[in-house]
Amino acid sequence: MGMNPLRSGLIALSQNKALRSFAEQSRMGQKMSGRFIAGMHVSDALRVAETLNRKGIPVSLDSLGENVSTELEARRAADIYHQLLDAIQQRGLQASVSVKLTQMGMNISTAIARQITSELVDHAAATGNFLRIDMEGSDLTQATIDMARELHAMPNHPGRIGTVLQSYLYRCEEDVLLLLTDRIRIRLCKGAYKEPPSVAFPEKADVDANYLKLTKILLTSGVFHGLATHDEAIIRATKKFVEHEGIDKRSFEFQMLYGVRRDLQTSLVKEGYGMRVYVPFGTEWYPYFMRRLAERPANVLFIAKNLLK
Ligand code: FDA
Questions:
Q1: Are residues 68 and 3 in the same domain?
Q2: Is the CB of 234 under 6 A from ligand 1?
Q3: Are both 212 and 128 inside the same structural domain?
Q4: Nearest residue CA, atom 33 of ligand 1?
Q5: N or C: which end of the chain has fewer CB within 10 A?
Q6: 45 C-alpha to center of ligand 1: Å?
Q7: Given the CA of residue 60, which atom of ligand 1 is nearest to it?
């Protein structure tokens, strides 16, 4: 994505194991992460969900974690999501869940990830909820799409599972059209990983143009999708398109990240648009946090200033 050295450096640091374990265990690290992470525990996530719900904002809860290396770890990660699905139902929260396949054991075996994720979709269906599979790096794009389609085709699953596509990938349009033939719900984002020019547009302007082009396809598809971006120019263009085409404001939703552009979140709610906030929580916050810094290197300064206060 027209990557400057600071951005690609931060993404590289997001994969640094030593820094990760140091940061995740330090008090200072936990304090810094509070800017983008709801807290360390399930109870923190539920509290934040309640607060946002009261402002008319539904959420998607993300129990942080990726790249587990044993089936036991994958099952433990899934257990937290089972707890969340029950708690959401019991408390009547407006909340769905987002998972990563590498957190469900995808790096160990596809069969394990399929089994564990499918149990979660069963639970989501039984509690009237919805599970979204986040999209990771391009080595997993095809496998994630295949998994989403397989899970979607299982009994009771249609409408209970969706996934994410990234407009920085050249293949994104093809993938949009494919998922639409199954009527699978898509969250469109720009993409947060470091990808080579062989698979992704190197220029941000191309990523943005592709985003808007694909948004228009999604909005006229008759399926409920999520537009995940904080980009004001894209949001403005989307609203214009929606008004011009007479599209129902409630036939899709905008989505933003916890702690990012709260002003825009509130104004979209006031204008009557659907607006869902992605709420990450948990002790394994480091890679997520570093990707957020990479998106907006000015955040590094912002966080440093807050620490000194
Ligand atoms: P862009 O990067 O062009 O930024 C536009 C403006 O938004 C900036 O000028 C700034 O004002 C604001 N902004 C953006 N990021 C910010 C930040 N970190 N801090 C402060 N301000 C910021 N990616 C992925 O690869 N797989 C996935 O599954 C998901 N899932 C996902 C869910 C949701 C709900 C969102 C909002 C995003 C994702 N993403 C994601 C991340 C996405 O791919 C992308 O990296 C970020 O959303 C940043 O891109 P923008 O579209 O916001 O625009």
A1: no
A2: no
A3: yes
A4: 228
A5: C
A6: 20
A7: 34
Predicted TM-score of the model (pTM): 0.95
Q: What is the pLDDT of residues 16-48, one digit of tens each?
A: 888 888 888 888 888 888 889 999 999 999 999
230 lines ligand 1 (CB under 6 A): yes
Cα gap 32→245, rounded to integer Å: 43
Contact 62/97 with Cβ under 8 angstroms? yes
Q: Is the CB of 135 under 6 A from ligand 1?
A: yes
- Nearest-angstrom CA–CA distance, 9 and 105: 28
195 lines ligand 1 (CB under 6 A): no
Q: Write the CATH number for 229.
A: 3.20.20.220
Assess if residue 201 is contained within a domain: yes
How far away, in angstroms, is 156 Cα from ligand 1 center?
A: 32
- d(CA 115, ligand 1 centre) in Å: 30
Residue 1 has pLDDT above 50, yes or no: no
Q: What is the dihedral of CA 184, 188, 192, 195, to 10 degrees?
A: 80
Decide whether any atom of ligand 1 lies within 6 Å of the 193 Cβ: yes
Residue 222 maps to a domain: yes
Beta strand ranges found along 183-297 (DSSP E) = 185-189, 225-228, 252-257, 274-281
Task: Indicate if 291 and 186 belong to the same structural domain.
Answer: no
| Cα angle, residue 86 at apex, residues 148 and 64 outer, rounded to 5° | 55
pLDDT tens per residue across span 122-150? 999 999 999 999 999 999 999 999 999 99
13 in any annotated domain: yes
Residue 207 Cα to ligand 1 middle (Å): 12
Phi and psi at 200, nearest 5°, equal -130, 145
Determine the straight-line distance between the first and last CA of the chain, rounded to whole angstroms: 33
* Segments forming the whole domain that contains residue 290: 1-37+285-309
238 and 272 part of one domain: yes
